[in-house]
Amino acid sequence: MSRFINAISKSDIRLFYVINKKVKCKLLDRVMPVITNLAGPLVVIPITLFLYILSKENMLLRRMALESMLSLSGSHLVVQALKHAVSRERPGFVLDDVYTFKDFYDYSFPSGHTTAAFSMAISTFIFYQPVGMLLIFVAFMVGISRMYIGVHYPSDVLIGAILGTIFPLVIHSILT
């Protein structure tokens, strides 16, 4: 079993370096920090609150906003619990030659930005498929950006995407 985990860990690090070092360019150096911030709390929380407040007469939009808020809240609690339970150091703290854009202080696993992006995207997809598909693409790019800027391993992003997909589906099934 330890061989299997070791192989996965090496693959995780290899893929991280491909995204963090090999695809580097000046355009992505400007674009990726913007993409990563699309799923930050200063963006996702005001958007969901704004949609909820704005949607008094559109019950479908109001329900989507409510489910999105619940998904974001629930998934955030799980992300924070996992971060402290696993205590995985960020790549820049343990790997050599990592290109990072700023210092981060908390743990790496799982990616909260990716979880938030997928929570919003899947919540939207349930009610508005065309817009949801666009947001799923954005969520995927948020995950890539988290590795590009050097703050998450691929497995952090993968688990964040899974959590961000499961929560809206569970919330929706409970409320319907």
What is the topology?
Layout: H1 2-22, H2 26-37, H3 41-54, H4 59-86, H5 91-94, H6 112-127, H7 129-148, H8 154-175
Helix pairs in contact: 2-7, 3-4, 4-6, 4-8, 6-7, 6-8, 7-8
Membrane topology: Multi-pass membrane protein
Keywords: Cell membrane, Hydrolase, Membrane, Transmembrane, Transmembrane helix
Pfam families: PAP2
Based on the model shown, name its key terms:
single chain, 176 residues, mainly alpha
Write up this protein:
By secondary structure, this protein is mainly alpha-helical. It has a single domain (2-175), classed as Vanadium-containing Chloroperoxidase, domain 1 (Up-down Bundle), CATH 1.20.144.10. 78% of the residues lie in helices and 0% in strands. Helix 6 packs antiparallel against helix 7 (129-148). The protein is globular, with a radius of gyration of 17 Å. The chain starts with a helix and ends with a helix. The model has no long low-confidence stretch (mean pLDDT 93).
The SSE string, one letter per element, is HHHHHHHH
Shape descriptor reads: globular
Q: What's the CATH class, please?
A: Mainly Alpha
Tally the beta strands.
0
Radius of gyration: 17 Å
| Main beta sheet strand tally, sense and closure | none
Structural class by helix and strand composition: mainly alpha
Looking at the overall shape, the CATH architecture is Up-down Bundle
The CATH topology turns out to be Vanadium-containing Chloroperoxidase, domain 1
Put simply, the count of helices is 8
User: Distance N terminus to C terminus?
Assistant: 41 Å
CATH level-4 homologous superfamily: Phosphatidic acid phosphatase type 2/haloperoxidase
Instruction: State the share of residues found in helices, binned by percent.
Output: over 70%
Mean pLDDT across the residues is 93
Low-confidence stretches: none
* Proportion of strand residues: under 5%
Number of domains: 1
Protein name: Undecaprenyl-diphosphatase
Membrane topology: Multi-pass membrane protein
Keywords: Cell membrane, Hydrolase, Membrane, Transmembrane, Transmembrane helix
Transmembrane segments: 34-54, 125-145, 157-175
